[in-house]
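## Example pair
The file below holds two records. Each record gives the amino-acid sequence first, followed by its structure token line.
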Amino acid sequence: MTVRLRFSSLAGLVLSIALTSLSASPSRADVVVTSGSFAGPNPFKADPTLVSSYRSSIAAIGAGILESRTNFGIPELTILDVEPYEVGNSTYHVSIFGGLLAGDVVRTLDILQSRFSASDPWETFSTQNQWVQIGAYVHSPTQTVSNHRDFIEDLGGGAFQFVKGTGLFWYVFPDDDPLGWELRVLRSYEVIRGAALVNPRTNGRGLTIGDGVVGGTSELVGEFTGLAVAVPEPSTMALAAVGGLAMLVGRRVASRRGSMR
């Protein structure tokens, strides 16, 4: 087997969904975070039904009716390494921040790691630090899951919700066999109230981001680990029989790694 080391993360899939009914005047006690991991569709294919599918999964995670997972079938976390990378799927690891107020800043640090077996040491391939200011905005209209990596929803009555996520998957060729390969995101987060962003600007999704904060008080801090382990499943054989698409994950350039931002 020729192993082409390419894996990727859709750093921060975020989708808009109202998960709970919040009071008109959220207080410190209302700031809560719910996290979970699930399998979803391709992040790069432009299709509003795929975005809707992800929104449903995030809503279920927030409502506590979708069990967070760590084991995924090979077709669930692999993408064929052929442009435009629309064949295959991804796992998603989200944190839903509820009870936010306009002006709050959510800071997240995602450390993305991989290894080829449970006995190998973890290797970090990307570190992503982000400060997002909460408030009303206009999101970019592109209908891909990738475009919804970070998303704020105005729930009314002064309450906002922010969903932060990472899509983890492997790029592969048909002769790759990622069985047992692992990916994970180590996420730490903080909600800061009354702070000013350093170097505020608007990103491609319409969100206000910065390079840090000045002042403010910490409302909540926490951590989340999202793990994706490739395991066999019956659908693997079916896909292999139709051209080996079950063995998607890798990269065209040997030993090169990247993450989707």
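Second record, same layout:
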Amino acid sequence: MKTFKFLIIICFLFSNCDETDKGNLVNYKFYIKNETGKSFSLSLFKQNNSLFSSTSINIDSIELLDEGFLDPGFDIQFSLTKDLDSAEFIFSDGKKLVQTYFNRGINDTINNVLSSSYFKMSNSNEITKTFFFTLSENDYLRAK
């Protein structure tokens, strides 16, 4: 009977514990903004070259790329970069722009969607941080 009571107490304690106390964490959101003048599809690939995600982005639209929670003491980075190897933009006219993660050899160091340093913070408070990556007409002109 003592064992049963002990198990009940342990279960109660663990049921009230959460892996992450989201009350103390910052919600972050990363968006991509299309200012290229062309619609495009964005495909994100993992390190083994398998497709992670794909989305279509219309002219002058904004799409959510990533969101989550992070301890306010850490630097907020585009969290998908730890899983991703490359990004491929295919524009409506067939032109293509390929970018690779900056720590993996040959890479695109101009306005790279896989690097959080190219995301600009637009909203910041103690609860939420919002970042935007803008793909511009200059990026379209670099496409082949």
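Notes on the second record: The beta strands are 26-35, 40-46, 51-57, 62-70, 84-91, 96-100, 120-124, 128-136. Residues 11-20 have pLDDT under 50 and may be disordered.
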